Please model this.
Amino acid sequence: MLSRRQFLATSGAIAASGAMSALPAWGQSAPAGYTAAYKEIVEKAVKEGVVAIYTSTDDVQGRPLLDAFRAAYPGIRIDYNDLGTNGAYNRVISEAAARQVGSDIVWTSAMDLQMLLVSKGYAEAYKSPEAANLPAWADYKDMLYATSVEPVAIMYNKRAMGSLQPPKTRAELIEFLKANKDALKGKVASFDPEKSGSGFLFFNNDARTTNDTWNLVRAFGATDPKVYGSSGAMREKVASGEHAIAFNLIGSYAIEWARKDANLGVILPPDHAAAFSRVVNISKGAPHPNAARLFLDFMLSKAGQTAMAGSGAPSVRSDVTEGLNIAKLNEMAGGKLKPIPVSEALLESTEPKNRAEFFQKWKQALRG
Amino acid sequence: MLIAYDAPKYRAGVILALFIMVAAPAALIIYQSFLDAPFFDDGVRFSLDAYRYVLTDSEFYRALGTTTLYAFGIVLIAVPLGGLLAFLITRTDLKGRKWIEPLVLVPMFLSSIVLAFGYTVAIGPTGFITIAFRSVFGIAPWSIYTLPGIILIGGLSHVPNVYLYVASAMRRLPSDLEEAARTAGASVWRVSIDVTLPMVLPALVFAAALNLLLGFETFGIPLVLGDPSGLLVLTTYIYKVNTIFGAPTYQVMAAVTVFLILITLPLVFFQRRLLRHARRFAAVGGKGARTNLLKLGSSGQIVALGVIGLWFLVSVAFPVGGIILRAFVENWGEGVNLLQQFTLANFKAVFEIPSLFRGIANTILLAAVGGGVAVAFYLLVGLAGHRNSGPTGTLLDYSVLVPRALPGLIVGLAFFWLFLFVPFLIPLRTTLLSLLIAYIIVGLSYGLRIIQATLIQVGPELEESARVTGATTFRTWKDVVIPLVRPGLAGAWAMIIIVFLREYATGVYLMSAGTEVIGSLMVSLLTSGAMDHIAALSFISIALTAVGMTLALRFGAKMHD
Model:
């Protein structure tokens, strides 16, 4: 039995050595593989002392990343603002217009809004030394980087499914909804593309890349469907058995939930392996530009990606062994993982005409 | 200080300052509604497109229709029920009415998001009450996700508003007429219908108008219970037009808000006229008519307590029980053994996550200290309006209306912009002061009403005698009015604490890292869907409110004006 003091000393030492081995050279000088000049960025960042983040990732999920960064750079404070996707966008454009830029880093899951910020000149180009470790689709002109790969999934409640067999693919899901539409009345949920940017991103991406999307929405529409603005809201209702099944929700979350609740099942449909990313940029005129660069590099580094993957945001790097990574996901999807690329194509979905068209089809299909 | 000796200038100054504080956000919103882009955009132009969009959108009309049904529906539920409760508690010898009264007010002090979420856990399709009911009767024949379900819940939650007005009118009634009727052999119910009811009719009509207004502005209950099935009201429609274009489209949000103002302003106007009449009417009864209470008799007691018990069960025990349950379990619902799910992890998380912990600390600070500042401010305004007729008095009346007609979410957004673009306000933006200022405006109509009601209780003869002996208006306020209303101020403070604890919409756009507040955190958690933390925060918020309420009663807060 260790005494309390021994215990504290030992665990402290373990934690310290763990941090050191996971983060070689971080905080001391330029990290391994970076140019010697990087030392200057580190020094300036420490002098700036703060990095302000506008994000849609909540504090709980973001914390391991923040803790890892703090351990590496204890001198830099993190102002973490969970504003939601629209809130972050609103604050960035409003502050820019008032010439009071408050954000250094903008990191949200609204890939389209983030691309809109980039295209309207609210982002600063910065070539991260980590860019070489990312897939080509994850880096848009050194302005916008993907930090995660998060599959779109189906989640179900084993008890509430009763005798129904859960579908294993998306094609089966469509058949499943059609065949059991009476038994499933009020028991099927999905993302609301009208109220949620992520929901729109998923369904719009589906509609553009597949030809069965409107069939799916029609089958969904026949079940007295319920739509939600977040995956978490769907979890609550599926876990309680109010809904038997939900589709097109964020799979990385669902996998975490299913780990804690044996009654939940998750399917990453191999015939439809779409994935989105949380994307990050540095704000134009960021008040702490060096701290911003340092944080962005850290997010994309092996250490940062390890921390994020550990809290449920699968890594965009295949060399990260913690949790899930892009290579493992691709394997799970039979080599057919289709991440939504960080590209100008995302802007199509911000065009009012395209959106109006999408919603018209959406409503029509939902009505059957 | 010149104004210290000059009441008219003081009045004009305070009222003008107040007018600017309330008119600025409203003007910004109206201006924004006539533009084609955010008002701060380069190359922004005047345009009616936002109105064109709204007026040609079938969803807008559907939301308008739903809102209208909702507003009238809750009036039909809340007014008779609130009137009945007020009658039983103020005019009869109902047993235990002393401790029933504060309980009647509980739903008023819970934010509607918390209430609605609590109902889901209690009587949603897999709520614990629903499951228990179904296991006994085989079927649970209700749905809280339908329009009637939402109206019923909304109506029940608005009972306290009616109660406050009607009870205060009933307290002022002399009992001689009722007694005469009783002596002539009329039953308690006859008396209440034929004698009491006509006398409090103005108060009932006023309460109806108030609830109609609140119905048009409702947000939390339809957001949580109606949204998943696509049931929209005007405020959730605003929420939706913010996302449907991809990027936030402020002009459309603003245009919908203008419609909301157009609907609610006449209501507020009508309500204020009624209030004037109601006061005059009730004053006829004279003061100090301490009444003899109607005797219910033993069967009457049972019926009355039964009605109150049922109301309490559905309006308070269900939603609060739902929240408490959810806060202490990991999972709930069909086939879940709740005993195995017990956990304190949700609370542990709340205290470990810096933003949530700060949110609790900030909320307490804002409610307690900020509430005190707010009461001081309302007192300054109240004195400026005290026994003041003429143009500044009218301006004051209308200034109080403006924030009533705007949804809190929109007021918060407008204040966010004001703090961003008005040079001398810039340093305040990322501090709690920005939230405090917005809260003061949002709580204005409520807080000022309490203060005005307290001030009006000071007999004019006392002030007149001070003036006759040569005191200035200021001297009179300082030496006569304020000392007399001091106990009322403590009560008002406690009430504002509760109002600020409950507030959620105003802070959504204003809070930053370091200035989080519980209510607005819950809204942002709702978008990421962390129900575990929402439940724990709600529980803490309810506990804080209970403390505030206890303080309020200890300070002798007047629950009625």
In short: Chain A has a mean pLDDT of 90.
